[in-house]
Amino acid sequence: MPFIPHTEDEVQEMLAAIGAASIDELFDEIPDSLKLSQLDAIPTALSEMEITHLMAKRAQQDGEPTCFIGAGAYDHHIPAAVWQLTTRGEFYTAYTPYQAEASQGTLQLLYEFQSMMVALTGMDVSNASLYDGASALAEAVLMSVRANRKSKSKRVLMPRTVHPAYRRVVRNIVKNQQIELVELPFDPQTGVTDPACLAQYAGEDFAALVIPQPNFFGVMEDVDALTDWAHENGTLAIGVVNPIALALLKPPGLWGEAGADICCGEGQPLGAPLASGGPYFGFLCCKQAQVRQMPGRIIGRTLDLDGKVGYTLTLQAREQHIRRSKATSNICTNQGLMVTAATIHMALLGTEGLERAAAASYQNTQKLVDALTAVPGVEVLFDQPAFHERVLRLPAPAKGVLRSLAAHNVLGGFDLSGDYPELGDAILVCATEKRTDEEIETYAQKLERVIQLQGGVTCGLVPKE
Amino acid sequence: MPFIPHTEDEVQEMLAAIGAASIDELFDEIPDSLKLSQLDAIPTALSEMEITHLMAKRAQQDGEPTCFIGAGAYDHHIPAAVWQLTTRGEFYTAYTPYQAEASQGTLQLLYEFQSMMVALTGMDVSNASLYDGASALAEAVLMSVRANRKSKSKRVLMPRTVHPAYRRVVRNIVKNQQIELVELPFDPQTGVTDPACLAQYAGEDFAALVIPQPNFFGVMEDVDALTDWAHENGTLAIGVVNPIALALLKPPGLWGEAGADICCGEGQPLGAPLASGGPYFGFLCCKQAQVRQMPGRIIGRTLDLDGKVGYTLTLQAREQHIRRSKATSNICTNQGLMVTAATIHMALLGTEGLERAAAASYQNTQKLVDALTAVPGVEVLFDQPAFHERVLRLPAPAKGVLRSLAAHNVLGGFDLSGDYPELGDAILVCATEKRTDEEIETYAQKLERVIQLQGGVTCGLVPKE
Amino acid sequence: MLIFEQSKPGRKATAQAPLNRADVSAIPEQFRRKQSAALPEVSEMQAVRHYTRLSRKNFSIDTQFYPLGSCTMKYNPRACNSLASLPGLVSRHPQAPASHSQGFMACLFELQEMLREVTGMKAVSLSPAAGAQGEFAGVAMIRAYHDARGDTARCEILAPDAAHGTNPATAVMCGYKVREIPTGPDGDVDLEALKAVVGPQTAGIMLTNPSTLGVFDRKIEAIAKTVHEAGGLLYYDGANLNAILGKVRPGTMGFDVIHMNLHKTFSTPHGGGGPGAGPVGVSERLIPYLPVPMVAKDGDEYQWITENERPESIGRLTAFAGNAGVLLRAYIYARMLGREGMPRVAEYSTLNANYMLKQLQSVGFQAAYPQRRATHEFIITLKKQAKELGVNTMDFAKRLLDYGFHAPTTYFPLLVPECLLIEPTETEDKATLDDFIDAMRSILEEATVDPELVKGAPYTLPVKRLDDVKAARELDLAWMPVVE
Amino acid sequence: MLIFEQSKPGRKATAQAPLNRADVSAIPEQFRRKQSAALPEVSEMQAVRHYTRLSRKNFSIDTQFYPLGSCTMKYNPRACNSLASLPGLVSRHPQAPASHSQGFMACLFELQEMLREVTGMKAVSLSPAAGAQGEFAGVAMIRAYHDARGDTARCEILAPDAAHGTNPATAVMCGYKVREIPTGPDGDVDLEALKAVVGPQTAGIMLTNPSTLGVFDRKIEAIAKTVHEAGGLLYYDGANLNAILGKVRPGTMGFDVIHMNLHKTFSTPHGGGGPGAGPVGVSERLIPYLPVPMVAKDGDEYQWITENERPESIGRLTAFAGNAGVLLRAYIYARMLGREGMPRVAEYSTLNANYMLKQLQSVGFQAAYPQRRATHEFIITLKKQAKELGVNTMDFAKRLLDYGFHAPTTYFPLLVPECLLIEPTETEDKATLDDFIDAMRSILEEATVDPELVKGAPYTLPVKRLDDVKAARELDLAWMPVVE
Ligand SMILES: Cc1ncc(COP(=O)(O)O)c(C=O)c1O
Ligand SMILES: Cc1ncc(COP(=O)(O)O)c(C=O)c1O
What we know:
Catalytic activity (chains C, D): N(6)-[(R)-lipoyl]-L-lysyl-[glycine-cleavage complex H protein] + glycine + H(+) = N(6)-[(R)-S(8)-aminomethyldihydrolipoyl]-L-lysyl-[glycine-cleavage complex H protein] + CO2
Radius of gyration of chain A: 26 Å
Number of domains of chain C: 2
Mean pLDDT of chain A: 95
Subunit structure (chains C, D): The glycine cleavage system is composed of four proteins: P, T, L and H. In this organism, the P 'protein' is a heterodimer of two subunits.
CATH superfamily of the largest domain in chain A: Type I PLP-dependent aspartate aminotransferase-like (Major domain)
Number of helices of chain C: 16
Helix content of chain A: 25-40%
Shape of chain A: globular
Organism (chains C, D): Sedimenticola thiotaurini
CATH class of the largest domain in chain C: Alpha Beta
Largest sheet of chain C: 7 strands, mixed
Number of domains of chain A: 2
CATH architecture of the largest domain in chain A: 3-Layer(aba) Sandwich
Low-confidence stretches of chain C: none
CATH topology of the largest domain in chain C: Aspartate Aminotransferase, domain 2
Strand order of the largest sheet of chain A: 2-8-7-6-5-3-4
Order of helices and strands of chain A: HHEHHHEHEHEEHEEEEEHHEEHEEEH
Helix content of chain C: 25-40%
Oligomer: heterotetramer
Distance between the termini of chain A: 67 Å
Pfam families (chains C, D): Aminotran_5, GcvP2_C
Cofactor (chains C, D): pyridoxal 5'-phosphate
CATH topology of the largest domain in chain A: Aspartate Aminotransferase, domain 2
Structural class of chain C: alpha/beta
Mean pLDDT of chain C: 96
Structural class of chain A: alpha/beta
CATH architecture of the largest domain in chain C: 3-Layer(aba) Sandwich
Largest sheet of chain A: 7 strands, mixed
Order of helices and strands of chain C: HHHHEHEHEHEHEHEHEEEHEEHHEEHHH
Bound molecules: pyridoxal-5'-phosphate
Shape of chain C: globular
Largest interface: A-C, 203 and 200 residues
Radius of gyration of chain C: 25 Å
Low-confidence stretches of chain A: 457-465
């Protein structure tokens, strides 16, 4: 029996001790009418060898195309040590550190994680993770509504330059509490939220303004002006940031005069593989003033009976297992193992390394844009300072182009036509530090060929501006 | 600087403590004439990301053909837990357990390994590994010459049914000590060493007789008769065995009336991946009487100052670091990590599991033989009881057939024509428990096609018997 | 020592990043950071040694018996980890087209189908990231269902007093009020009390069965009938599914929606706090509202079901497809169990729990519900010991650590005083259970002879008992560089 | 507890093997075993827990400073492990044709070339499985060279008294007699003594430089000249190559043949005893005798060089190509060092050793060769402490374990009484060295104040000092089932 250690003799001894004749008898409180006899739709057991064979086939089936998609998940180099350490049984198979004395490994690591996030974001405190970047933003919005004492409103300003999936997730999560998201448009020339367009809302009551940096188009928002506008209007500023970009960019804690109040984002770039979208982790940091409104676990440093330093879960009175219906969130299981990986990842890279990874991603994306815009008809939209993503407009239907590229094992970018039809045949492209010159060159060549073919077929349909 | 932690400040502090002006000065006892300036032929450093890219390409380049070669290295299933545990830093990065108190993990594991090998082989003691199966046989031969008190000879009987590479390695290692290997022929009908052919040597003085089981052709030798012959003639019996086969076959300790005196073999099938031939490990077991002639490390169970059980290197007076020129072998570093894997592997499979793996390999090879001999012109040589390898004779040049199969990503077997030209176009095939029915079927289909083509080209050259 | 305390500015001992630093001066200064982030600067070896050593300060399933009730700390098969980490799987971008995702999608689809079968629900969505998010999805679906029918007066969710904290917290996140239902003396829900409070304001009830009291609610069919007749829906908290896997199906019990904790029942690792996965299954009437994405099969081809195909869906709850890597691990585990393995999970976890309960009773401990069968877990109460010896549940828990066992769940459910909720799981062998029982017996002896010994525990761990009050009062939540 | 003691007959708790047992009754009974082999029968979790716990009883580089002299316990980069373990590499059969091996062979070829360059030899064969097998190959080549010239009277190999045990043991395995050369008071070989014994019977000399005394033999050129003039060849034991990597080449010093310990200088893991890899490099005249296989490059294609291409080769020493996986790890490491990284290895390991030597002297320890520079390692002698305090080297070593440091090499080389051979390697940082020096200072204090404390060490490890004498006298080398 896979994973079950009992011998027949032991089962008999145990039943005898219990005073039951059979294992079945142990289920005698369950009404017979409920009992199940068969599981026909479930296949019979596979041995480890057989499932190994099957999974190897499945893994191969999807190929390993060269990836120029970012759009919320980024293909950064992960040092080999990260996962070799993270999967050590002591990290991998522990539970949430409820018994602090028997969990100092995880607890100290989480305290280090919080410290690293504080260093990176310039905020005062960090929690120990949420599910992912999108749900972290939803929690940040809920938190801002609770935390903003100046505001009685349940309205939050949400720029359209925030990742479309994030906006959906936020709406799905907060709408049941009657929170309203007010969308802010972006400047069609620059691709950023124009602080001027906020003017119309001056004097109105909003709990928070969300500020993405870089925004979904890869472009930099005027975070200082936006943060200051928020504060001038009694509104909290919530930053949504890319942690790798933060190695180079101004940390949210220093935006504007007073800094953002809350910041959150997707932790995936810090050591989580692309892996079909998860597990990743959301991070959430805030100013000291807001700490008691934070969702999720928080680890504190304290002393033991002998005065020795130790670490423990703290501020648990915010949490569901203590506060139940009055908790700051329902989150229980979080993304601990991913945070373990992220902490080791940041320790291995260090300040220097993270900066170099960020700079190389920045540079590679420039190279990619240069190579692709050399293809006739391809142009950059929003020619603004950007980090490692860019919007390109194609002279042929984006869907078809991307499909043809995929057939050549190049994932050419994220199709923007669904979420931003007003941009035409636009795609969002990305090149992390992992993309080589050769790969970029190959992409450009294939794109040229594909466009020639597709352009021929569809010419006239998509008038070149 | 990869892997070097020193900051410039620290370097200066350290030099100041030493009283040296520069690191270069620390090399001032080395004659200038010897100093090197450049390493032109060595490429500049790669980052981990770059070498990752390179190695991924190299690994892909060789494809992953379906493997029907055995011939000394076997593609068995290795439970995932084996290498996840073996590569834990505490096993992976420890040295030979010289400080026993700080190495009880490795030492107890090695003691368990010795115990498992004793259980498997039916011998009294096992050492803690040698380099590989071939060099283990060489050590066994050297050991037999030292150990056989009845014999003054340096001659050893070596059947031609022993793996040809093993025979070469033994010769290369023992010849400098003027040990002579006398080859025993095999019966061309059965593929085994005919005990009768030993008659001519009766009364002569040999230190040992080597007995492979199964032999290189996969076929079973009459180990009882061979062992008894050896003992009747004052000769030690050295078994060369496959540890997976031992799950089913009579252990060397029980061969004949008195059992083999020494047995050795290749440990690879116990948890080591094929991995281009290494690292594997050789094992060597013997009767209690010979233990002081054993080469390699041996672990013993003992007590500590408090009477608590512990483990330690023992019988070190056999070893080079104590005995120097009088040691039983020059071996120092052995294959400890592979033994770690093997021990965990055997613990995970258990008696039952090892038997099932062996039985499935046996069965799959029968299936393979059935499928391939259904191809016109293909026939089994040596239709004797066999374990999981078989010799087939092809109706076309073996080299060409194997090359064509490889082009179809099937490694069809080991070409015997180099080592056994008298067998004609013969190949040695193998199917472990990992080969699926589908893979066997594919092989048979491809073989049929290849033979049709090749047969056409070469017809007449290789007259079908 | 913290990793920060091993840091030296100017150390560049890494081969991890690109070796050279690209020029970023084209980014306008207003966007750039002026001071580098103070991450630790250590060598690769320092990091490896530090985190290897830290890991050794944890208890874990791979090192200790970890009978944490309600958490199902069973063995996490190593194959699930290595196979879910195959290069082809970890390199797949979440936005990769379906043409390059058929292998991955096949696993998800088959997992959906297996979960459907074993829970008896009509359809399954895998996307929620953990149990609590599964709960959110479930309650949001209940809300969407009532809303779609214009049945908008239903503003209350019922939950037994034994419910896990996520249940009420979730209800509130979905905009509901929560009303607690008391538990009867036998551990089952007080049906009469339930009947007294259901009504037109009832949106639904959240239940676990077996409950967090370690008993199977025998009146579950009556409860279902009561709630359904009042127009409410039944939510099943699947945290305890291990107890009945392959034996009874929530669908058969009458539940309308269920979440599963794959990190419990399907043995994906807990990772020191996560990640998990909380798929939801529903009865016919809730299918339109299932969260997206899901996977459908059309002929031989797998396709994504998104907001476009499911306009009434409660939508997506994470940016992509939830915790995909956890789903893969659960898929692999489920295939290794197969149809024969699933009921065995329930059988042997129940056998282990009942055996432990009996043996602990025989060495002097009180069961909270002595007249009941244990399910996969059970509660003992140390009320007597606390009162007579002054040694409470937490003291027992801490002392167990010295004996090399992780403590069971303490002080949950809240309604049983001084309780230990003990869940051995099916992957532990008898000898380990016996050792634990021995340890409990021995601590009981210690508590009688020398209560201070127990109250001062633990003694053998990296730290002694920690000052939680100080931690909460004098918040120290991040290391700060010492300014010189 | 042994894994055997956790075994229960009849336990079949495994998903590891094929689920069903094939019929093997066609194998005649005379060949079959009658009784199953008594391997342990445990569940997957029991095995995982047992070996995880066992591992935690080890000191290792990943957990401790491990300054074992002559062993070069440096950090083993984790990328070397994961990249050498890529599926495409671990699945390659050793007999796969060259057509399916170009990626693998490219790595071997480039490694040969890099080792050639950094040692200054003319050709390299990678195949020996460890240092001692490299020594065997080297001495066998010396023998083959003399034999090929008909120079068969050379029956002696010279080796300094400081030589590692493998050197004399190897010479004997190759059929030679060994003659020891004394060391001068300054740690260099006694050149006059050498001159007195070289002659027509000299086949060669085996040397390390820097020697195992932790000093660089300044008269190496004179030694080479002396031996060469007598018609002997020079063998370089590369165990200490870390000290001079990229700074001095054995080829330049005049050596004819060299082995390298890739598991030392090229940082492949020691694995609790192995595996290693001991490639050999040779001067022009020994090229024909190099062991096979090797890799050649013809245009863009890599080819195997075997016995067929090299009829004069000493042949193969393992069945296939040696410890291929170790070679891959070393290749990866070498590429990450690159030409700039290699000399740094020598520089920083030398810096660390000289710093430690100086600091240990300043806290009261005696250097064996105080007038000399340390190389990458150095010797202190505790002769004085042993005599005056009755606390010997082994006592210091054991006490260091309590301080969380692995002990340096003890009692080797044999000629320095009560010695500790200390090799910090380049990958340790100053803070760790300082901590070790502090510990040594503190133990010296303990030895003065309370010698019994030190003599009873260790106290904090899984066992106290073990009875080696009992182990050797009452041999207990394998667990035996208790017969009831
Ligand atoms: C009974 C019960 N319900 C719900 C949950 C919440 O599940 P998760 O932690 O996966 O969010 C838990 C987990 O601890 C639980 O035990
Ligand atoms: C100086 C010296 N020579 C030779 C050897 C033998 O090398 P190996 O252990 O790789 O066989 C060693 C290893 O300990 C050594 O230190």
